[in-house]
Specification:
Elements lengths: L6 E3 L2 E3 L1 H17 L4 H8 L5 E3 L9 H12 L4 H8 L3 H14 L12 E3 L10 H13 L3 H8 L3 H16 L1
Antiparallel strand pairs: 1-2, 3-4
Length: 171
């Protein structure tokens, strides 16, 4: 966006000075509360929680990764995570404990290129990995090897998860 011009969005005009003030405020809040951009945006936009794809690795399962991020990085309680993901509190509890045994450190979030909304995980017909792969494939149009690299999984595993996810949704 060119900040030298006025910016029009849905009939509202923002001038360059307003944009610069917002950017300064955004940066100061990030620094004061030690947040990165996705974490701050999650706080500002209560309507959807976004999960950065950069947190996934081979070390943890998809559910473990997501639960650990939501609990430690966003400060959500097990009950809130269960409600968001449409899973039982017991499942969330076990996923978090398992993740904590495998990886003790809180995720260090870098600016990510891809995000998955938690709402993409609510279809209970699909497993978490199937939901994640399906979302990345259909919304970002990534190929299997790109998704595999992002999630720390073999491209054949990604292909299988996508195929199974599509088949389950047809039923």
């Amino acid at each position: 966006m060119n900040i030298d011009k006025e910016y029009w969005d849905i009939g509202v005009s923002y001038n360059a000075e307003t944009i610069l003030e917002l950017r300064k405020l955004f940066i100061s809040i990030k620094e004061k509360y030690h947040l990165n951009s996705p974490e701050l945006l999650n706080e500002l936009e209560e309507k959807e929680v976004l999960i950065p794809v950069s947190i996934f690795s081979r070390k943890l399962s998809s559910l473990e990764t997501i639960v650990k991020y939501l609990k430690e990085n966003l400060g959500l309680k097990n009950k809130e995570i269960a409600s968001l993901t449409k899973r039982s509190v017991k499942t969330i509890y076990h996923a978090y404990n398992s993740a904590n045994e495998k990886a003790r450190k809180k995720f260090e979030i870098k600016e990510a290129r891809y995000y998955i909304p938690v709402s993409a995980l609510t279809n209970r017909k699909l497993g978490v990995l199937e939901s994640v792969v399906k979302y990345l494939k259909e919304n970002y149009e990534l190929n299997y090897s790109e998704i595999g690299r992002l999630l720390g999984r073999d491209p054949r595993t990604i292909w299988t998860a996508y195929r199974r996810g599509r088949e389950k949704q047809k039923e």
